[in-house]
User: Fold site-specific DNA-methyltransferase (adenine-specific) from Deinococcus soli.
Amino acid sequence: MTTNTTEVERRLWAAADNLRANSKLRSHEYSTPVLGLIFLAYADHRFQQAQQELGADADPIDFQAEGVMYLPEQARYRRLLALPEGENLGAAINEAMNAIEAENEDLKGVLPKIYNRLDNSVLAPLLKAFNFEEIAAGLEGDAFGKVYEYFLGEFAKREGQLGGEFYTPTSLVKLMVEIMEPFHGRIYDPACGSGGMFVQSARFVTEHQKNPTDELSVFGQEKTAETVRLARMNLAVHGLSGDIKQGNTFYEDIHSSRGKFDFALANPPFNVKGIKKDDIASDPRLPYGLPSTDNGNYLWLQYISSSLNDKGRAGVVMANSASDARGSEQLIRQRMIQSGNVDIMLATSSNLFYTVTLPATVWFLDNGKRGSAREDKVLFIDARNTFVQVTRAIREMTDEQVEFLANIANLYRGEQPEFRHGNRERFEETFPGSLYRDVPGLCKVATRSEIEAQGWSLNPGRYVGVTARAADDFDFTVRLGELNEELETLTAEAHELEQRISENVQELLGEVRGGVVDEAVLA
Assistant:
């Protein structure tokens, strides 16, 4: 790639940030028009590429056969850029979105049409900034899809808990997909957010020299209409189509999921409370029982497990607490383990998520291991120390780290490791001869009896142990003295602050008793 994609992403983000500063939209609203323009610009870029190959007289069906959206004249980006000064840009962009939906049934009611709320002074520079024809030279492959994902991630950072509902960090999704290996079949995500699991699954297929449109069928469900629209746009940006529907998975099984899917991937919301248990008491998607606790974790795990066919695989991001939960949840976990489909448990680092600082655990289920040598075993991987620090608050895993962890799963399953990202030397040093072995502090295969002895816990830390520490390269006595000095300083500051607070409280109480405190203080 001759142009640095990161530089392009940052330049485009700076242009988008101008919208937030100069429009009347609230901070959580401006993501919609920005993502819509990226979608429109990229759709036009792909359309022009296909038109050069198919010819100017090609029919809409010819473009659809190539996996490209047909764009009528009024929806083409270059037409918007060529509009005369003074033209109502907001109305023109809304018209473009309507025209695309008229030609593409999957996008009906999906694209944003709020551009009439924005002034030309804001829209004109934004249109020019997202003109992919000017930045396309030097960008290759799926660069534009990555730009879209970059924006989803940035919006997730800024939208707090709301952002966490639609975005799972890309490196974690890559890891799940690499371990799952969704080469071919039907993929389900009952909490699909913006569709990142589907996009990465398609990328996995592409990296293995196949066409994801031919190999994968996508089925998703989301609670909010806005997030459903994000998912459909994200799929369209990547040249994919899927059946994404709105519905609350706790009460609605829109896709009739039981036993239907080859793969299921999800990052459902953790620790959901207030679920109406009476409404789901007889749900056939809960074969291991209804948890008595006010917590949705073991509902999600069962919804996803029950959606798999007899060879199906699943990957589910879960709160760490689910691995050791007691009471009714422990009984459900025991039944899942005894069923033979719990395959791999992987503990992640903290700070991988933009909205939650705590670490998580990824559960990998595999119905296909029943009847095999792995049926009585579970692989535990401790990846809590596998990350790079991006900012003080955010961590992620590199492609090399993702591949290293996925290759552990490959060896455990008796498959050959893959080395597309340069981790061969380190991997073969850790696993000589590319044969699986338990590595303290990293991975351990435990039998069902060993898990039972641990109270049916699926916490990887209970099994993998700790890494043997190398000798420290500093003087321990000196370092201990430094730490003790720092502790004494902080303790002295704490005492000083405590004394100041006490004095202020005493002074305030004296003023109250003397009747001199004003009403603002009392309020």
